[in-house]
Design brief:
336 residues, alpha+beta, Dna Ligase, domain 1, D-amino Acid Aminotransferase, Chain A, domain 1, five-stranded antiparallel β-sheet, four-stranded antiparallel β-sheet, 12 strands
Length: 336
Amino acid sequence: MTSAALDIGVTCNLKRDVAPRPGQPEDALVEYDSDATLHAVLSAIEAAGHRARYLGYGEPLIDALRSARPQLVFNFAEGVGGRSRAAQVPALLEMLGVPYTHSDPLTLAVAQDKAVCKHVVRSHGVRTARFCVIEEIADISLVNLRYPLFAKPVGEGSSMGIHEDARVEDARALEALVRRLITRYREPVLVEEFLPGAEFTVGILGTGPSARVLGTSSISPRRVSNERFVYSLSVKQLSDWREHVEIECPPRCDARTRDAVEQCALAAYRALGCRDVGRVDVRLDRDGEPSFIELNPLPGIAPGYSDLAMITEASGQSHPWLIRQIIDGARARLGL
C-alpha cells in the first residue's frame, strides 16, 4: 500500500442475504446486488491501490465497524424495508463518524420517494410531468391529469412494479392498474402524465458545482413507437432485451436536445444535493422538451449490465476507472 492508500470497507445488499417475505411481489429483490458485482467493486478498489473488504449489512455491518473501523466506506446498499431504507447505512455511518461515498441520508430518502423527489426538483425550476399520488382506490376519482397516464409504486427502485401496462389510456385501465399496485406493493402509487418523446439516462460524477456529466445514452424501442414505449422491468430482464430496445451512447439526437437533456439532469442532481455519482432519467414531453423522470443516487454498477457501467464503457473508460472516480471524488470532498 502507498501512502495515499486507504482501508476501504464496502457495504451493499446481496440478493443471497435478503430472504423474500410471504406476500412480496415477484420483483421484490430486483434492486439488490449479485456477488459478481460485489467482487468487481472489491477488485477495482484493490486495483486502485487500496485495501478492500466487504462489511456486510445489518448486524454483520455493525460488528465489522466495531472490530475494525475503515477509513472510508464505499456504500451502495439499497437498504431493507421502508421508504427511507436507502438512508439506513449512511445514517449509521454518520452517527459513528465514518466517512463514506455517495449521497447523504436526506438525499437518499428524498430520491426514494418519487413524489417528494419531483416536488423538490420542480421547486428548483426543473421541468417534470404533472402528477399526483394515489393512496387508496377512492382517490382515483380525484385524478385531474391528461391521458395517457403512467403509474408506478411511489417508493420503489430498479423499475419495480413497472410493466407494459404502466401506460394507461382511460380511467378504467388506471383503476385496474392502481388497484393491483396498491395491493401488491402496499404503498401509494405515483400517477403522472405520460411523456411521449425519446428517453435518456444521464450518468453524473462529482458534487455540487463541480458535478459533471459522464455520458448520456438514449433508449429507443425497436417494436413500438416512442408514443407507446414503456421501458419496463419486463424488458430489462429479458435475455434478448437488445431485440426490444436499442441503447446508444452518445444518444441519437441533435446537439441542442442532448445539451438540454444533460442540463435538466444536472439541475435535478444539484437540486437534490447528490454527491459523488448518480444517474438521472429524462424523457422528452409533447413539445420535445426534456422533463425529469427520476434520479438514482445509488445507481447500479454491475459491469457490462447497469446503465452507468455501459455509459462508462461507451465513453472509453473501464469499470475500475468508474469506481476509482467515485472514490477519488469522495476523498476530495472529505479531505482524505
